[in-house]
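look at this stuff:

>
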Amino acid sequence: MLLADGLRGAIVPATAVVPDGDASVKLNYVPAVGLAMTLAEGARRTVRTCLNVKRGEYVLVLVDTPRREIGVALYEEALKAGAETVLAETPPRSRHGDEPPQPIAGLMRDVDVVIAATEYSISHTLARRKATESGTRIATMPTITADMMSAGGMTADFREVSRLAARMIRRLSRCRELSLTSALGTDLAISLGRRKWIIDTGIIHRRGDFGNLPAGEVFIAPVEGKSNGKVLIDGAFGGIGKLDRPITITVEDGRAIRISGGKAANELRSILARQERKVDDPDAPYNIAEFGIGLNPKARIIGNPLEDEKVMGTVHIALGDNSTFGGKVKAGIHLDGILTSPTLRSGEQVLIEAGVHR
C-alpha cells in the first residue's frame, strides 16, 4: 500500500517521487504557509461539509502546478480533520478526460477520499470510475479558482441543493422524452429512454459517492441517435467561456450537424474538428452527450463550466463523451453549453418556464 502509518504531518525535504512510476508525479507532504482566509474557508466547506472527512481516513488531494495554493489549503484542512493525507502534484494534463498518471490512478483506489483540484477534469476518466467502484468518495474541482473557492457556487447551502435535486428527480423519474424551448428559438426533443438521472448535490458522504464542486445539478446521458431539433446556447460554452452571441446547434439523430453563430461558433467547430481527427469514430465529438439542469442558487455564469452548469434556472447540453455516466460514446472530449431562461416540458408537465422552476 502506498500510504504508510504516520503519514499525517510527515516531514520530507521537499517532495517524494513515486518509484517505478511516472517520473513527473510528485507526492508533496509539506504545505506552504500564509494561505488566504478565503481559501481556508472554501477548503473547510469542501473537506468538512461536502466530504465529511473523518479522523483516520486516508485522503488524497490531487492538484496540478497552477492550483498548488488551492491544493495546499485542502491538504491543511484535511490534516485538521485528522485524516492521513497526501498532496500529489502533477503537471497539467493536455485536455479534459485525460487519464492521470498510473501511480495516481492506483492511489485513488487505495484511499477513502480523493479531492481533485486540477486544470482539466478527471471526472470522465477510467481512473475516476475505477476508484468510485472501489468505494472511494471523490470530489472533482476542474478549473477551480481562488475566487470560486470563496464566492458563488461554493457558498451555497448544499443540503438545500440536495433537497432541490431530490424534488426535481421525483418529477423527472418517469419522463422518457423532454421538450426544450426558449425565447431565442431553441426547440429540441431529447430522448431519455430508461436512462438514469445522476444527482450532483455536493453531499459526498457515502462510500463510492462522486460529484463536482461547486455542485448543484441533475444530469443524464440522452439516448444516442434519438434527439432532434435546434438549440441556442447563450450563456457560456466549455473551452470558450462566456458568450456575447448565441451559438446555434442543429441536431439531427442525436448529433450536432451544423454549428453557427460568429467567432465563438467558429472556435467550437475548430475544437471539435481537432478532436475528430484523434478518435476512431469521427462523429463521436458531435454526440449529444448530456442534458443537465442547474440547481445551485448561488452559482454564477462566469465562463467556467464547473460553476456555469450549476446556475439555478439554466440547463445545459454537452457534446462528446458520455461513456462514464450511462452513455455509449467515447469521444475523449466533453464540452458543456449553458442555456439561460429555458422552458422544459415533459408531455403536459411544465418543469421550468422561462428559467423559473415550477
Q: What stands out?
A: The chain has a mean pLDDT of 89. The helical segments are 37-50, 68-80, 102-110, 126-133, 146-150, 158-172, 263-276, 305-308.
